[in-house]
Amino acid sequence: MASHGELRLIGENYDPGFIGMMKEDDGYGSSDDFEGALGNDQDTADNGRPPKKKKKFHRHNPHQIHELESFFKECPHPDEKQRRELSRRLALESKQIKFWFQNRRTQMKTQLERHENVFLKQENDKLRAENDLLRQAIASAICNNCGVPAVPDEISYEPSQLMIENSRLKDELNRARALTNKFLGRHLSSSSANPSPSPSQGLNSNVEVVVRRTGFCGLNNGSISLPMGFEFGHGATMPLMNPSFAYEMPYDKSALVDVALAAMDELIKMAQMGNPLWIKGFGDGMETLNLEEYKRTFSSFIGMKPSGFTTEATRETAMVPLRGLALVDTLMDANRWAEMFPCMISRAVTIDVLSSGKGVTRDNALQLMEAEFQVLSPLVPIRQIQFIRFCKQHSDSVWAIVDVSINLSNAANALMFANCRRLPSGCVIQDMDNKYSKVTWVEHSEYDESTVHHLFRPLLSSGFGFGAQRWIATLRRQYSSLAQLMSPDIHGEDINTVGKKSMLKLAQRMAYNFSAGIGASSVNKWDKLNVGNVGEDVRVMTRKNVNDPGEPLGIVLSAATSVWMPITQQTLFGFLRNERMRNQWDILSSGRPMQAMFSVAKGPGQGNCVSILRGAAVNGSDTNMLILQETWSDACGALIVYAPVDASSIRVVMNGGDSSHVALLPSGFAILPGVQTDGPSMQPDIDENTSDGCILTVGFQILVNSVPTAKLTVESVETVNHLLTCTVEKIKAALSVTQLGSVE
């Protein structure tokens, strides 16, 4: 049966005219049972009895149908109590209500199945067309040297024939190298002399077969030519690759395949439990990568480690409440991946899909991507990385997805990997029997530590800035939030399901804009300002909004800084999210206490929610200014983001209206747990007094002039900087913190 979300989706596109085409006795327009509606139509004059009089139908009036349709969009399966309430309100019998919903669901299911059939037929036609194009491209391949067909006979896809063809192509390649060395005087090493790294036969033999099956190695179609000096390794070429890409992309697809296979082999070995590659810490200590064992086990296939770079490597395993294939689909979609990790990924884009994989399993899917990774602090530079992402299904219930940095320009490492490069990293996903998945995440990077402020160096070296623990914590929190929101037992106060979704969408945009303002993402065109009176640990940026309805028009100023707080993460989070204590630090409260109108829970725990706050009335007059606030906390950090909103605008959103035109500028706090600066790496302690402390990032976005063409003044910058400093000092005073370590 279709899920509630599918029913709502079809219901929104429902055509009322479809009902008029149904038979009058189909039971939808009336509410009588099927036995009464499907009586004997034939006259019974044969047996001498008078014909049975047909049962009279009751047709619902437009008001009743409108009310039933509205309720159906919210709840397609009403319980007995809800049916009785509808019966009383619409002057209908409970049985009529029951059969109306039954017939409506049946019709909706029919529409959904028809829609799916049309979609599948279109997909089938598309695949047939692509298959025909591939066959034509192979059949018409011409050798540039002799002008004869490169493949004179029908290609056999048997493994033995593929191996023979692969051997022939290798011989042709070696002859071409020899001719190049002779006539050009250039030394081009053969694949046997310097073989490219390849994974173990047992793990990736299936991958190699697929690669050889569909490759175009050695076939020159038209003007397509392969680089003469390229290391082809085992003859592997791109699986399921569209031949037209060869005209568009300057990089070598075969090189990416070799790197992907080697990276997958490394990830699998790194994820194996009991592997000597990892050293377990004392007690609850974290695992540490054994660098000597790592160097003995693996060879570097993306180049030597750049001078001055530091290694960070972490591994974490957890149970996540979702099926493995659902997580695979999310990770292979750049937009959904960025939405799943909004505070870690400021931008993600798929540059090219080299292989879409096999069916819905995404087996052997390979794509070229670019992303910006961030820690919510102006003192940690964004990591902009180009990488390939490779997905492999190792069994019916096990998938692995690996990322590894690449250099498309073939430039020097110092130019390509400006401040970071990602070694084979990713996750191994195993479906369990209880609708959970076991996820083992591995993160391995090398970065330039000199670009990172000393306050964050212990956090990054321990892996809690970009490490596996943070990815797993975010993943678990996001899917717990999703399960919480889909639960029928969770309701916001005075807000329906549509309004709740609209408000959560607005909060999502608010949190995203806050993160972009902290990390200076390239998504928003921020201009960095250097003002003499502003400290070097404060980042001040500006941009102009000319036509975006999602924020006020004019000049927007962003200011952010990070400081050390000698208190636990949980203590600081509890203070900042408490609306009763907000007047101790927030100038928007004007010294008055705040109160929560209502909140929508986003996960377990009291602090994971989206709330609407308002200030207490002054002299009996109610304020028209409300505050939208989102808060969450997990083992690797916490977030408090808020923005003032107009009361009339938020009412529209709560009633299910469009939230994209609600103008807001977010401000807030990001908290990262404290990490010991000496001794073995330990799990961060977020709620015990033994913790060293935590790092607080404060960020404000303020409209300083409503005229986009106006000049930005030094006084405006100093005002925002003063607001930043005063807020930190007020938090310090309220918590009686005497050693608030401003970054030095």
TrEMBL record:
Residues 249-484 form the START domain. InterPro entries: HD (IPR001356), HD-Zip_IV (IPR042160), HD-Zip_IV_C (IPR057993), Homeobox_CS (IPR017970), Homeodomain-like_sf (IPR009057), START_lipid-bd_dom (IPR002913). Residues 112-144 form a coiled coil. The lineage of its organism: Eukaryota, Viridiplantae, Streptophyta, Embryophyta, Tracheophyta. Keywords: Coiled coil, DNA-binding, Homeobox, Nucleus, Transcription, Transcription regulation. GO terms for molecular function: DNA binding; DNA-binding transcription factor activity, RNA polymerase II-specific; lipid binding. Residues 25-61 are annotated as: Disordered. Residues 51-111 form the Homeobox domain. Its main location: nucleus. Residues 50-61 have a biased composition (Basic residues). Residues 53-112 bind DNA. This is Homeobox domain-containing protein. It is found in: Nucleus. Belongs to the HD-ZIP homeobox family. Class IV subfamily. Transmembrane segments: none annotated. It comes from the Eukaryota. SMART domains: HOX, START. One of its GO terms (cellular component) is nucleus.
